[in-house]
Amino acid sequence: KLAVPKPITESVTKCNYVVSHLPPEVASLVRDILMNPDATDPYTHLKTELINRSGESSQQEIRQLLSGEELGTRKPSELLRNMKRRAETLKVPETFMLELFLQRLPTSVQTILAAVTDLTLDKAAEISDRILEVTPVPMEIHAVNKNNSNSMEKKLLSEIEKLNARIDKLEFSRSRSPFRRNRSNQRSRGNRQNRNSSVCWYHRRFGKNCKPEKCVSPCHFQGNETAKNRRDMFFAADITSPVHSRPDIKYLLSGRHRF
């Protein structure tokens, strides 16, 4: 008789046997368990963690595989057939497939299916087909998109108005800054000084009330050319008058005579 191998019953022995046959990528998932095995039942603990952690990885893989599947204009039953075909190489539990299928249905359909008891994949697809036949879901989606575009347009207009208000505020603050006021005051004072430097003291002091004979040349007071011409004509006429031809009058006008 051939010797019948004894079954492995010790938890430590079974754990060591499993660890020796683990692929590297699977062993990396339970590295912390391998470094610190359970003292009482290491095999059961390792088995439980392997199922939980590899199950999470497989679910992520299934989600990535079916991430491109959307309802669009298709019937829900057609969507379900495509999802099953793409995931046929993976052993996907029906409950997890039902969860993924419901996530791709419109919100209104999900609400109705949530009230259905003992819901299965085929039953969910059949009910969804009937709901979408009588419910204008595309029109509702279009209305939602239109409202979203209107709200986005209003938001953009509001932001533009805020930017314009900030620009106006900056321009107003720059116009009222002390530096710009000082520069404008300096320019105005310089212009006044330039204008005043070409006007004699009498015209700066008395303005238009200054008498022509008081004006000191060169003076460019406004309207002063006419007054200067009149003054020159007055003195020219006065000098050529018969009075100035008399010696005694010339002597008096010279100022050397004392009264």
TrEMBL record:
InterPro entries the record matches: DUF7041
Signal sequence, start to end: none
Pfam families: DUF7041
PANTHER family per the UniProt record, alphabetical: ENDONUCLEASE, RNA-DIRECTED DNA POLYMERASE
Record-given protein name: DUF7041 domain-containing protein
Organism this protein belongs to: Araneus ventricosus (Orbweaver spider)
Residue ranges annotated for the DUF7041 domain, each copy included: 5-66
Phylogenetic classification of the source organism: Eukaryota, Metazoa, Ecdysozoa, Arthropoda, Chelicerata
